[in-house]
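QA checklist item 7 of 12: single-chain prediction sanity check.
[x] sequence parsed
[x] length recorded as 182
[x] structure emitted
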Amino acid sequence: MAKRTTKKKTVKNTRKQTPIVSGSVTRAEKSITVAEKNLERVAQRVDKAKERVAQATAKAKETKRATTIAAAERARETLAKAKEDKREAAAALRQAKIDLKAAVKAERDRIKLEEREKRLVEKKAAAKARAMAAFEKKWEREWERKQRARKTTKRTQRRGKTRAQESKPETLKDVNTEITAS
């Protein structure tokens, strides 16, 4: 039979391999995806605003009319607003990533704490079992010692009775006969 080269997967090993993801981590991941999508939309708005500003300034330079110059100014303001929105979206994304790291760390700490508590409970249970076994063993020894002591006292009492009976004459007649005989 061939020797096993890989570690056999047990229930305990599979439990360790699949981490349990809490709700806070999934919420943080969802907020990151939302922030990324928002940042992409704002970046597209910035690009469109840049194109509009370039077109409006080119048209304003050509025509030099007040309406086209005002349109170019409005396009610049829109671009500035879009850039500000982009900065805010980037900040929101950074914050979402920080929140995710914090949630993952909190989840790890919670799992470690639960495992530590579980180990402590197991340790206490093992100590209690050892103490109970030691107590039972001590109690059994004590019981056996008492039983031996009872047996020996009964035995000595029985032996004492027989010896006393042997040394004693059985009846008064026997005593009288012994006295008269001597």
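[x] summary fact logged: The helical segments are 11-17, 23-63, 66-167, 172-181.
[ ] second reviewer sign-off
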